[in-house]
Amino acid sequence: MAERQVTIDRVHRPLPSTFFVIATQNPIESHGAYPLPEAQLDRFAAKLSIGYPDRESELELLEADSKGQLGTDEVKPVLDPASLCRLQQRVMQTVVGEKVRRYLVDLAQATRTDSEIDVGLSPRGLITWQRVAQSRAFLRGRDFVSPEDVQDVATPVLGVRLLGNFSSSDEIVSRLLEEMPAAVDSIQTINVEIRDAIQSGNIDEAHELLHEMEHLVDELPDVAADTDLTEQDWKEIQKASEQLSEAFGKLDESFHVEDSDPQAVYDGVAESIDSAVEQISQRIPADADVPATGNSSSEHDHGVVAARYACGPSLIYCGIGLAGSILLVAIFPYSSLTDSMAHTDPMAPLQMLLVAIPAYATPLNVMMQVGGMFVHGNSVGAAYVLLALGAGANLGQLAWAYRMYGLKQATAFLAVFVVVVTAIAYSIEDPLYSAGEVDHPHTHAFDVYACPYTGNGSDLASKAWTKIREDARMYEVAGLAGVCFLIAVGAVLRVMDPENQLDSKLASWGERQRSDTESVFHADLPGPVLGAVSLIGLVAMSVAGCYVFYPAPEDTLQDLQIVKADALTYASSGDVENAVKSIERYDDLTRKLQVGYYLRNFELSEFQQARARVLRGRLERLKDLLEAEHDFDEVRDSNWEISESHRRVREAFTPQED
């Protein structure tokens, strides 16, 4: 167990770091099951009560038994020893702050002085408690331990160790946690501690407190958005937060620069800090809960992330999309589409469906092909089908839709889309046709979808290479090389770094760079600026599509209400699969709400963005609870929090009457 070795005939055999012991005991069968010594119990990390399986699990158990699938042959490994060792190392790197360590020690000493406890927590048990709390924080995606992590694992860790005259250790642990709650430091308190640490020359402690303060300040806008304060108050809090961040950036820089005097730097920014702290403390409600969140590598965009995605599902979808164009080349011989899609052919729009859906075409190429169709008496309806489906759909996109929304919903959407496009195509055929009588309607617009080679199919490799050398432009070759390089890097990263350690290191390095240097490239651009730059290039082609895809806020709010009811109902009933799907739709609708509001009002305040962001955070937490199979009380509490955040989002996006 804790000795990490086994001795047989005086021969010591070391055990691997992945070795651990699981012991089971059925409390009903007391005969033959003797209590273990206290010292041996102390070597177990935790005590878990599994209980009976639920109804659905027992039904699955009977079904598996009837099919002979209960044997161990069906068990498959989900992790190799090397990956487990890497995870163990990352857990040990999870930071435990000074205040959390003091909280652990205070709780441990309380177990030793409590009148109902005969045997309290040992130093070995205290170390185990800290490690289990580190694991809990790591599984939640954080790089530091919060008091909540300590509290969440208290019952299983202490339950195997505390001995005394009581029937249930759970009640004792709950009482201890209630009698000794974790101290919640306010911004004012930490500010004073930073000043005292600098004045006493304890720079390491001041640096640690500064990072704690920065985490707190980063969360302030979202915390404020999750309350009922006014938008003006929220803006004042955000302004004060930015003021604090700027002051802390200067102070943090003084810790890294040689010959710098942190005391002098603090004196220079003390007035600014005190003013901002006062502004925040006057507006943040006393009962506002600052969520314990940390910086994970998924929150940072790096080239390595792009490489991982390039070698992930996106590559498969792109391959499926390109396969559609390859399929067309294999079906249609050289120049076979030159005389097709004539205005006089009533089947032209339907024929175009067979080409447009599998075609992998960019909007620019499609527009050029459509323009070429109007010269020699081609079908206007077929041109519209190519524009709508050639650039709007491909096999890769359909594969993605089937995976995201299921066969039924994706097929229904595609069918409706095709029917609407076809109906419009036939309705505009005659009114928009202007080429007059043409003896021989033809076009070369579709030659790109047919086989580019004449003759038989021999020596295709040589013909393909010759065609590429003749037609490929330099920027196309450079772009293809860049994509191939990105895919290769992604493949190497997925094999050599499956735990995303490089991402985390780059994220940490990036944060240090941002704190150590001031550059125009680190500036945060306002949303309207980014929106204007994007809209300039897209407005000519997609204004109508944007207004259809992003409906008016009042329509989206109605959809949100329906999806909210579905998501919370499924969550309350334990239907995890449908609940997760509804939560993902819920999340997507909040983003549509923001874009739809911006398109119609030409502004989107940061206050509205913050409230929508808080709602998405609540949805993510509910999804995590469901996938981790937490108890009903936690799911119920999360449902209530989502309802409150939903109400605030509705108020933020609903016009207020004067």
UniProtKB/TrEMBL annotation:
Taxonomic superkingdom: Eukaryota
Signal peptide: none
Occurrences of domain ChlI/MoxR AAA lid (ranges): 109-167
Keyword Cell division: no
Membrane as UniProt keyword: yes
Pathway(s) served: Porphyrin-containing compound metabolism
Pfam name, any one: AAA_lid_2
Residue ranges of every copy of the ATPase AAA-3 domain listed in the record: 1-45
Transmembrane segments: 314-332, 353-375, 381-402, 409-428, 477-496, 529-550
InterPro entries reported for this sequence: ATPase_AAA-3, CbbQ/NirQ/NorQ/GpvN, ChlI/MoxR_AAA_lid, P-loop_NTPase
Keyword annotations from UniProtKB, A to Z: Membrane, Transmembrane, Transmembrane helix
EC class (word): ligase
Record EC number: 6.6.1.1
PANTHER family xrefs: MAGNESIUM-CHELATASE SUBUNIT CHLD (PTHR42759:SF1), MOXR FAMILY PROTEIN (PTHR42759)
Protein name according to UniProt: magnesium chelatase
Species of provenance: Durusdinium trenchii
